[in-house]
Design brief:
homodimer, mainly alpha, Farnesyl Diphosphate Synthase, two-stranded antiparallel sheet, globular, isoprene biosynthesis (chains A, B), EC 2.5.1.10 (chains A, B), (2E,6E)-farnesyl diphosphate synthase activity (chains A, B), metal-binding (chains A, B), magnesium (chains A, B)
């Protein structure tokens, strides 16, 4: 990760953690265990890749940070709820997430289910209620529509269901891509496109951002699958080899490790190519694309 | 149930089932098992009490049915998702719901978790995307804010967490009321108030509807607790005595069966009193209040 990007990521991590804590301070305490479980899950750090994308695209387009905060927080609420539910015994049955006990281990399963549910609502709460500048406020419905599209049956939930159906079943590459476009790509795409929806940018710029989002989203997933094979559990913060153990469909399983690595580099080039057509300062976004293919965890 | 109300309820049941089927017809089939689970849960009938309230208040205020449809459907999506998750093994662990296998029994636990998640998103999808008349469309954000408030930590999820915390623990009446105001009252309240938010009605009329909603919501819960003791499993469509079996806090446990019955009648009178101050034709709403205290399941 280059220096400018590393600084940006650190600033984003601090900003989103502050926004999370600030939001929870405003909630009353009628259900303290639920509140604690929600905050525990959201504050379990991670790379904050989606907020990083939100602020990076937003900064590139000259948007106010205060208009980007609710977008970043809402997307992180959706991401956080999906991790809680994915880790449940009936789903991936994971005890550890980024080296810490998962929500249902730290609390209990009923509380974890509810915490995921309430975090999903919180995402829409943030978008529906956040103070926004006048021009951004006019686009609230568009933002809500985008988050709905990325999260529900058409997006993340649908992708997760496709993943369940693909476990123990061989699927073809186009099905695996659709699965990942929905399961992880849809929310990454929302993080890239939602800031741009606060402005009227030319259609060709929107399409270039769409292209960037699609290739970066796939590259992220291909690298995830590769790391599950070549990394170790300590670096990953989760058990290495869990995809194979769970008999999941992955890119290395489909195209071999060399084939997946070559595909990753092709996606990386396409992501950079999409950025090259934009008349903005895309340095940070290029850094993110580079980082995604070189990351070790 | 009087004849006018029975007819209205039948019309509402048909209308909401049609709206549900119509919505699912528009979804593509990338995750057929998830889609089937979502539709299965939503089509498992029931009294459709929340849609009945939406259409009854909406009709009373002279609103267009096409503006009421998305409100009724969105609320029913939230209600449906909450039932799926409440029935899960880690929550109430119920195998039957209205005499049919619960979602995780009919499908599987992972699919049921996802179906609940995707139904929650669908609720916000419906409100954010439904075609509405021009005047109603201006109030979309208000509707979304109301549904968020009723569903999340401040509402239903928070109430469910309070219920978990109260199980095996004695709580006082004011805590039990707050619990139920959130767990079941908040969504019933939304069903009564959201139609009125499409219009500018005088504050005293809003307050009267609020009062009606609060008392009807509590009466509904008190009657639920009473029926769990005095009814039988076949009439209820779920195991009689399950509150006691789960050691739940209930009104009869707190104030005795006679005390709870007296309280129910007091709430009923207060609900009717609130309606009496409204200059609309409140016949159907009075019928609903009467029905709620006389119902057998």
């Amino acid at each position: 990760m280059n220096t400018a990007l590393a600084q940006q990521q650190q600033a984003v991590q601090q900003r989103i953690e502050h926004a999370i804590k600030d939001h929870f301070r405003q909630l009353d305490d009628h259900a303290p265990r639920l509140k604690a479980a929600m905050e525990y899950a959201l504050l379990n750090g991670g790379k904050r890749m989606r907020p990083l994308l939100v602020y990076s695209v937003g900064n590139m387009l000259g948007l106010a940070l205060s208009d980007l905060d609710p977008i970043a927080l809402a997307i992180e609420c959706i991401h956080g709820y999906s991790l809680i539910h994915d880790d449940l015994p009936a789903m991936d049955d994971d005890d550890l997430r980024r080296g810490k006990p998962t929500c249902h281990i730290q609390f209990d399963e009923a509380t974890a289910i509810l915490a995921g549910d309430a975090l999903q609502t919180m995402a829409f709460d943030v978008l529906a209620n956040a103070p926004l500048s006048a021009s951004a406020s006019q686009r609230r419905i568009t933002l809500l529509q985008s988050l709905v599209q990325a999260s529900g049956y058409a997006g993340m939930c649908g992708g997760q269901a496709m993943d369940l159906a693909a476990t123990d079943n061989a699927i073809e590459q186009h099905q695996l891509e659709l699965l990942h476009q929905k399961k992880t790509g849809a929310l990454l795409r929302a993080a890239i496109l939602m800031p741009s929806q606060l402005l009227d940018i030319p259609t060709e710029h929107s399409l270039a951002l769409e292209n960037f989002a699609r290739h970066v989203g796939l590259a992220f997933q291909v690298q995830d699958d590769i790391l599950d094979i070549i990394s170790d559990s300590q670096t990953l913060g989760k058990p290495q080899g869990s995809d194979q153990a769970h008999n999941k469909s992955t890119y290395p399983a489909l195209m071999g490790l060399d084939g997946a690595t070559a595909y990753l580099h092709e996606l990386h080039q396409q992501a950079l190519h999409a950025l090259a057509s934009l008349p903005y300062n895309t340095e940070i976004l290029r850094g993110i694309a580079d980082y995604l293919i070189h990351r070790k965890h």
